[in-house]
Automatic annotation (TrEMBL):
Protein name: PAS domain-containing protein
Coiled-coil portions: none
Transmembrane segments: 6-23, 35-56, 62-82, 94-115, 148-167, 179-199, 211-230, 242-259
Pfam families: PAS_4
The entry's keywords: Membrane, Transmembrane, Transmembrane helix
Gene3D superfamilies per the UniProt record, alphabetical: PAS domain
CDD domains given in the database record: PAS
Lineage of the species this protein comes from: Bacteria, Bacillati, Actinomycetota, Actinomycetes, Micromonosporales
Domain PAS positions: 406-469
SUPFAM superfamilies in the cross-refs: PYP-like sensor domain (PAS domain) (SSF55785)
Species whose genome carries this gene: Actinoplanes siamensis
Signal peptide (UniProt feature, chain positions): none
Length: 547
């Protein structure tokens, strides 16, 4: 043997150590397939060491057991690589083709290659297993030809196939070195940074059901029993081991295919039920707390409880919650980093373009949790965010319509009254002013979006603004300024109804007290150049204590 036991031990330890280093350094989303790959290399190394001492019968049997374990671990590893990965979102067609290939290879080997005596030393089960591994690795490379880790996995599979075919036919250093390619390539695949993308989570892309693929899977599953039946009818079963192995592999692929279909159907049903319940709750929601409770209940149903760290409906986004690059118009979500290495933050904006006028600030649904689960429910969470945005827009518009109807009702009731009254928003914009107030100011209509500050005398604006910004009811005396620069002294009484769902503002009533003061105060900006300074001082005192 060119490669002794020590060399196989060093290759095995080196390959396993490289995979462990790559996993710890790059931290892939799913570590299980890489640990399975490390376990398969360890089993292969132990088998090669035992095979080096195959003159001991028990060690030769142990080597065969280790090789079988290596194939099992490698098969599980590749199944993990093809489950919900970014490179291979839908593995249904791959499993169908692998099952068909497995049955076809069995038939070709038993009835074509197996009849040639030159290949008696080649293990058909090993060759069929190598070809299946080669097919999976080729599919990963076809999905992304620039992924170096996938190319290295393919090179390792080619080395295994070359060794399993070439070494029994022509034993020597060259054919035995083909297995070295397996150790080196699979170890380097885990070290390269592109290994992260092999297990990066991606949303499932289920393929539509087609009858011909179901027929193909049924034919594949029927292949091994048919070959066994034909050999039994001939009188002797000569390929029982390879038939059993191939049948087991085909059965596992068929079960995996059915399990994927059941899982996808279950996930779709769960999402549908969760979104249906959330839609019903959001339609019945009358305020923001009800919307928040409905969204939290829906997230708890759509995602596993242990996968969610934080759920929040934000009115405004902090700078750290904005996308790193400017989001495209109409972008439905973006990703942010989270505190945990396996966690991510999904931000779904609550902004619908046709209804931006209702809630210009927008807001967002922010969910922090395990990225793999967030990616799986990504589409459902975006739909939930859209439903929540519709509910919030509906609530905002209903409140706006209610306030408008309330203002129209108030205007119709007090249209001919002599009371001076106005309804003011929280930003002091005048939403409604009674006709008597407009007559007092000698204006037919107030300017659009006019504020109370624009009507109050500049000397009184700060005091009135401070009073109206405080909570509770109160009274303040001030002067209103007419268009001709004259003043009207009023007693302004306000009621704080900002928490009232229908009003959401301040109701201000005024009483004209101009008749209680000196008429000269109505013209504070008049020209009095001929008067004595004593008048000016007296006038200043009157302005200060006029109320």
């Amino acid at each position: 043997m060119f490669w002794g036991a020590l060399e196989w031990i060093l290759l095995g330890v080196g390959g396993v150590s490289a995979i462990a280093y790559g996993v710890r350094r790059h931290r892939p989303a799913r570590k299980a397939p890489w640990w399975l790959l490390a376990g398969s290399l360890a089993a292969l190394a132990v088998g090669d060491v035992c095979y080096s001492y195959r003159h001991v019968p028990i060690l030769e049997d142990l080597a065969d057991l280790c090789y079988l374990l290596m194939f099992a671990l490698t098969a599980l590893c590749l199944l993990q690589f093809t489950r919900g990965g970014a490179l291979l979102g839908d593995r249904a067609r791959l499993i169908d083709l692998l099952a068909l290939s497995c049955s076809t290879l069995l038939i070709v080997w038993v009835f074509v290659i197996g009849t040639d005596g030159r290949f008696e030393t080649v293990s058909p089960a090993d060759v069929i297993g190598d070809l299946l591994l080669l097919g999976v690795a080729s599919r990963l490379v076809a999905a992304d030809r620039r992924n170096v880790a996938a190319v290295l996995l393919l090179a390792g599979a080619l080395g295994m196939l070359a060794g399993d075919v070439g070494y029994p036919l022509a034993r020597g250093p060259l054919t035995e070195s083909a297995f070295v390619v397996l150790y080196v390539c699979w170890g380097l695949a885990a070290v390269h940074p592109s290994m992260i993308r092999l297990t990066e989570p991606a949303p499932d892309r289920p393929s539509p059901w087609k009858f011909r693929w179901s027929v193909l899977l049924a034919v594949s599953a029927a292949g091994p029993p048919t070959v066994l039946l034909i050999e039994a009818l001939r009188g002797e079963v000569e390929d029982g081991v390879v038939i059993a192995v191939t049948g087991a592999v085909t059965l596992v692929l068929t079960i995996t295919r059915l399990a994927d279909a059941i899982r996808q159907n279950s996930q779709a049903l769960t999402r549908e039920q969760g979104l249906r319940a959330a839609t019903a709750a959001l339609v019945a929601a009358a305020d923001r707390p009800a919307v928040d409770a409905a969204v939290r209940a829906a997230v708890a149903q759509l995602l596993p409880p242990q996968a969610v760290r934080r759920v929040a409906l934000a009115d405004e986004l902090a700078p750290t919650e904005l996308p790193a690059t400017p989001a495209l118009p109409g972008s439905r979500s973006w990703w942010l980093d989270a505190a945990g290495p396996d966690d991510r933050t999904l931000v779904c904006p609550l902004r619908l373009e046709p209804l931006d006028v209702a809630r210009p600030s927008g807001g967002a649904l922010i969910i922090t949790g395990r990225r793999e689960d967030l990616v799986t429910g990504h589409d459902a969470l975006e739909v939930l965010a859209g439903q929540a945005a519709l509910a919030l827009d509906r609530i905002t518009l209903v409140e706006a319509v209610g306030r408008r109807d309330s203002d129209l009702y108030l205007r119709a009731v007090i249209r001919n009254t002599a009371d001076l009254m106005a309804v003011i928003d929280t930003d002091q914009r005048i939403r409604y002013a009674s006709p008597a107030l407009r007559d007092l100011l000698d204006q037919e209509e107030l300017p659009p979006l006019a504020t109370l500050d624009e009507l109050v005398d500049p000397d009184d604006r700060a005091r009135v603004r401070t009073a109206l910004r405080s909570h509770g009811d109160g009274t303040v005396h001030c002067a209103l300024q007419r268009a001709d620069r004259t003043q009207v002294l009023v007693e302004l009484t306000y009621r704080d109804l900002r928490e009232d769902r229908l009003v959401q503002g301040l109701v201000v009533t005024m009483r004209d007290i101009t008749g209680n003061h000196d008429p000269a105060e109505l013209h504070p900006y008049g020209e009095h150049s001929a008067e004595m300074p004593a008048w000016v001082n007296r006038r200043s005192a009157q302005q200060r204590f006029r109320y």
